[in-house]
Amino acid sequence: MAMGLFSRLDLQEGLQTLSVLQWIPSYVLLGAIPILFMPYFLVFTKFWTLAMFLLAWLVYDWNTHSQGGRRSAWVRNWTLWKCFRDYFPIKLEKTHDLSPKHNYIIANHPHGILSYGAFINFATEANGFSRIFPAIIPSLGTLEGVFWIPIVREYVMSMGVSPVSELALNYLLTQNGSGNAVIIVVGGATEALLCRPGASTIYLKQRKGFVKLALKTGAHLVPSYSFGENDVHNQETFPEGTWIRFFQKRFQDIFKKILGLNFCTFHGRGLTRGSWGFLPFNRPITTVVGEPMPIPKVQNPNKETVDKYHALYISALRKLFDQHKVQYGFPEMQALTII
């Protein structure tokens, strides 16, 4: 009986590890299929008509990702995402109701290395977002370039992921009725470089576009913080003046220029606990969604108005962090550092 229990536990942990292991490679594989094989089909095989059909569909469907996308409740409810959730585990905590009579911008912090908490809580139903926030439709924002790749765009749209572009966000907040919540990981790739276990530093002082968007659309602003997001990887920053720091900075510049991403030298655990690798550590992440802030609708907000509501948002975020930091592992005296 004991052996059977251990076998089930080993199987469960193995499935959880595989669910996380497949996540990024699945995007790479799905993206490689059309990029590598479509030119081959067009030139060297009799299946050129299939490749032409896929290209024609991409052109015809080009604007869909900026007009609400094409989500699938089936994909959002895959058991795969529950295994992914339990690997850490990841939790979602509500502090206030969100009325379906309004639209919302949920600003999420910190970015961490790969925003595991934001993905599971807002792009899947692993933690029951639709049950916790009934009649609210979440759309997690990501880089628009993802939607230029055939197959990948269908996959991410099925999870309710949207480009974090003005066109797409405006559509969701002004032309798609009420009860919409767009989730923006405000610090973006720049904030990933601040990720360290135990760190509570976010990149926000100069990030005011989401506040301006809230003012122009009248969407309520909602602060959210993923406690533990920074703890699941270790990140190395090498000493200034060393050759390895020189190459690290050059790679960071190249990634930022070409892909819009920052190159992070991070590591975690391997396929087994205690081993070295690039999988995240099994450490809990809890995304706490705060109180919505009503924002007036201003067609052309000036700098003073944007600064005013940006300051109010920062105060609300600090309050949220201070109310929950001890519960989720931070010392009482630790403050949220905003740069």
Helix/strand-derived category reads alpha/beta
Largest sheet: 7 strands, mixed
Q: Assign an overall shape.
A: globular
Q: Any idea what the radius of gyration is?
A: 21 Å
Protein architecture, described:
The chain is of the alpha/beta class and 339 residues long. The chain is 44% helix and 15% strand. It has a 7-stranded mixed beta sheet with strand order 1-11-7-2-5-3-4, sandwiched between helices. Strands 8-9-10 form a 3-stranded antiparallel beta sheet, with no helix packed on it. Helix 1 packs across helix 5 and helix 2 packs across helix 3.
Quick rundown:
With 339 residues, the protein is an alpha/beta fold. It is built from 13 helices and 12 strands.
Entry keywords:
alpha/beta, 3-stranded antiparallel beta sheet, 339 residues, 12 strands, 44% helix, 13 helices, globular, 7-stranded mixed beta sheet
Secondary structure blueprint with pairings:
Elements: H1 2-21, H2 23-44, H3 48-60, H4 73-76, H5 79-87, E1 90-94, E2 104-109, H6 116-123, H7 129-132, E3 137-142, H8 152-158, E4 161-163, H9 166-174, E5 180-185, H10 188-192, E6 201-202, H11 209-217, E7 220-227, E8 234-235, H12 243-259, E9 266-269, E10 276-277, E11 285-289, H13 303-324, E12 337-338
Parallel strand pairs: 1-11, 2-5, 2-7, 3-4, 3-5, 6-12
Antiparallel strand pairs: 7-11, 8-9, 9-10
